[in-house]
C-alpha cells in the first residue's frame, strides 16, 4: 500500500499530440438543367417556325399577326413553366452558389452558404462549472524540513489539501497526516505559485488526517462538502490533486466508485504490523503521488472523500482509496478544536499468543479449548488497567462479550464502540483460570 505524497522526484513524459484539422470539401455541382434550358425553348420556337413554313402563304396581314401572337403566347407559357419547375433557377449566380442552394434544399437567394457549427458543446455546463469550483478549493501542501542547522528548510515532499472552512479571518485545510509528518514548516500553495505559511493544528496517524490553518484573506473558494452515505458502485467521481508535485497542480481525473466499505490495514509506526484498519472508498480515478489529501468529488462538485492511498504494485492498475467524508468530519472537528483525537485508553501493551517469546511461554497457562487472545506484556503505571489490577501474562479473550484475537479487534471496539468514562468488562485467563475484570476507560494523557 502506497500513500501518495510526492518526494520531489518529478518525472514526466512530454507527449506530443498530433492534431488533425478536418476541412469541409465543397463538391462542385454541375447544373446540367441550366445549360439545357435554352435548347428546350429553341426547339419550341423551331417547331413553331416549321409549322408556319409548311402552311401556304397567307395574303391577309391579320392572319399573320394572329399567328405571331399565338406563337409568342406558347413561347411565354413554356418559359414560365421552366421557371416555376426550377429547370431554370431564379438565382443566376455562379455554379458554386447553385450547388449550395441544391445542398440546402431551399430556394434561398442569399449568396452566403449556410454555416453549420461543429464545435463540441458540453453535455452539462453546470457540471463543468461545479467541477471548476471544486478544483479551485484544492490546494498544494508543501512539507519543509531542515537538512542541517546551517540551512533553511527544503521541500521534503508535496501533497494536496482541501479548503473546507473559512470563518473569523481564518481558513482551514484538511490533508493527510503523512503529507505533513515530520515537517518543521508547512506551506500551502494557492493558485499559481502563491505560497502562504500554514499552521498544523493537529494530526491523527490512525485515520491519516491532519488539519491546517492559514490566513483567510488569501482564500476565495471553499469546497462544498457532500455525503458519503448511500453511495453506489459505478457512480462517476473525479479525483482532484497535484500529481508529481506542483507542475501538474489541480489536475482532475475521472473514474467511478469501484467498491464501498473496503477495509485496509494501516501500519502507523513502520514495524510492518497492522496497527489499524480503516474503511475506505475504492475508485479507479487516477490517484498518483502528490494526490494525497486531495478531493474525491461527485458530479455536483461535492467532496465525498479525501484521497489517501493506492495499491503500489506493477501488476495492479486503477485501485485507489479515499477516506469517506462522513468518517473524516468528526476527526477534522476534534483536530481543529483540540489538536488531537481523544480515544478511550486502557494502558497496556499486548502481543498475540503466537508472538510471545519462547522464554516467557511457560508463564502462560490456558485450557485446551482456548486458542486465541492477547497476552498482556506490560501494564502502564497509573492507568485504568493498573487500577483494575490487570497483570502481566494475563490473556484477554473478550471485551463486553466480543472476542479478541488481535490488537486490531481490541482497538476497533475501544475506538468505535466504547466511550471515555465508560466501564467495560474484560474476560481474561490468569494462571489457567477464567476471570472477569471491570475497567473504567479514560482519555490518554498527552
Automatic annotation (TrEMBL):
Domain of life, source organism: Bacteria
Keywords: Hydrolase, Membrane, Protease, Serine protease, Transmembrane, Transmembrane helix
Location of the PDZ domain: 373-432
Signal peptide: none
Transmembrane feature ranges: 65-83
Classification via PROSITE patterns: PDZ
Listed GO MF terms: peptidase activity
SMART domains: PDZ (SM00228)
Cross-referenced InterPro entries: Chloro_Bact_Ser_Proteases (IPR051201), PDZ (IPR001478), PDZ_sf (IPR036034), Peptidase_S1_PA (IPR009003), Peptidase_S1_PA_chymotrypsin (IPR043504), Peptidase_S1C (IPR001940)
A biological-process GO annotation: proteolysis
Biased composition (Low complexity): 98-112
Stretches the record annotates as Disordered: 1-62, 98-128
The enzyme's E.C. designation: 3.4.21.-
Compositional bias segments (type: Polar residues): 10-51, 115-128
Alphabetized PANTHER family for the sequence: PEPTIDASE S12 (PTHR43343), PROTEASE DO-LIKE 8, CHLOROPLASTIC (PTHR43343:SF3)
Protein family per UniProt: Belongs to the peptidase S1C family.
Protein name: S1C family serine protease
Organism this protein belongs to: Virgibacillus kekensis
Amino acid at each position: 500500500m502506497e500513500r501518495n505524497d510526492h518526494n520531489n522526484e518529478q518525472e514526466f513524459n512530454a507527449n506530443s499530440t498530433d492534431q488533425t484539422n478536418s476541412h469541409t470539401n465543397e463538391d462542385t455541382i454541375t447544373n446540367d438543367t441550366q445549360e439545357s434550358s435554352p435548347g428546350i425553348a429553341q426547339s419550341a420556337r423551331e417547331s413553331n417556325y416549321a409549322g408556319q413554313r409548311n402552311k401556304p402563304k397567307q395574303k391577309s396581314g391579320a392572319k399573320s399577326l394572329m399567328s405571331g401572337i399565338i406563337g409568342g403566347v406558347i413561347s411565354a407559357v413554356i418559359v414560365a413553366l421552366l421557371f416555376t419547375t426550377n429547370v431554370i433557377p431564379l438565382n443566376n449566380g455562379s455554379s458554386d452558389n447553385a450547388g449550395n442552394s441544391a445542398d440546402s434544399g431551399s430556394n434561398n437567394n442569399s449568396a452566403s452558404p449556410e454555416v453549420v457549427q461543429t464545435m463540441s458543446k458540453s453535455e452539462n455546463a453546470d457540471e463543468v462549472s461545479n467541477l471548476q469550483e471544486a478544483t479551485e478549493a484544492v490546494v498544494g501542501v508543501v512539507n519543509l524540513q531542515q537538512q542541517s542547522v546551517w540551512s533553511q528548510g527544503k521541500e521534503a515532499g508535496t501533497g494536496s489539501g482541501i479548503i473546507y472552512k473559512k470563518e473569523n479571518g481564518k481558513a482551514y485545510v484538511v490533508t493527510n497526516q503523512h503529507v505533513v509528518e515530520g515537517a518543521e514548516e508547512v506551506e500551502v500553495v494557492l493558485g499559481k505559485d502563491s505560497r502562504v505559511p500554514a499552521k498544523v493544528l493537529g494530526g491523527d496517524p490512525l485515520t491519516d488526517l491532519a488539519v491546517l490553518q492559514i490566513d483567510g484573506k488569501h482564500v476565495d473558494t471553499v469546497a462544498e462538502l457532500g455525503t458519503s452515505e448511500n453511495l453506489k458502485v459505478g457512480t462517476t467521481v473525479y479525483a482532484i490533486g497535484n500529481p508529481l508535485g506542483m507542475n501538474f497542480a489541480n489536475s482532475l481525473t475521472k473514474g467511478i466508485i469501484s467498491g464501498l466499505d473496503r477495509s485496509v490495514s494501516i501500519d502507523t509506526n513502520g514495524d510492518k504490523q497492522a496497527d489499524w484498519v480503516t474503511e475506505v472508498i475504492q475508485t479507479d480515478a487516477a490517484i498518483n503521488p502528490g494526490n494525497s489529501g486531495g478531493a474525491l468529488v461527485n458530479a455536483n462538485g461535492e467532496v465525498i472523500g479525501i484521497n489517501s492511498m493506492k495499491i503500489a504494485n506493477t501488476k495492479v492498475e486503477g485501485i485507489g482509496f479515499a477516506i469517506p467524508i462522513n468518517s473524516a468530519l468528526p476527526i477534522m472537528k476534534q483536530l481543529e478544536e483540540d489538536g488531537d483525537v481523544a480515544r478511550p485508553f486502557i494502558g497496556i501493551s499486548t502481543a498475540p499468543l503466537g508472538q510471545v517469546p519462547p522464554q516467557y511461554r511457560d508463564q502462560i497457562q490456558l485450557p485446551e479449548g482456548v486458542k486465541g487472545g492477547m497476552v498482556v506484556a506490560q501494564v502502564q503505571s497509573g492507568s485504568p488497567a493498573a487500577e483494575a489490577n490487570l497483570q502481566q501474562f494475563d490473556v484477554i479473550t473478550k471485551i463486553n462479550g466480543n472476542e479478541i484475537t488481535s490488537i486490531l479487534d481490541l482497538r476497533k471496539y475501544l475506538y468505535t464502540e466504547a466511550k471515555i468514562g465508560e466501564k467495560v468488562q474484560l474476560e481474561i485467563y490468569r494462571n489457567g483460570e477464567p476471570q472477569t475484570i471491570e475497567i473504567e476507560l479514560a482519555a490518554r494523557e498527552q
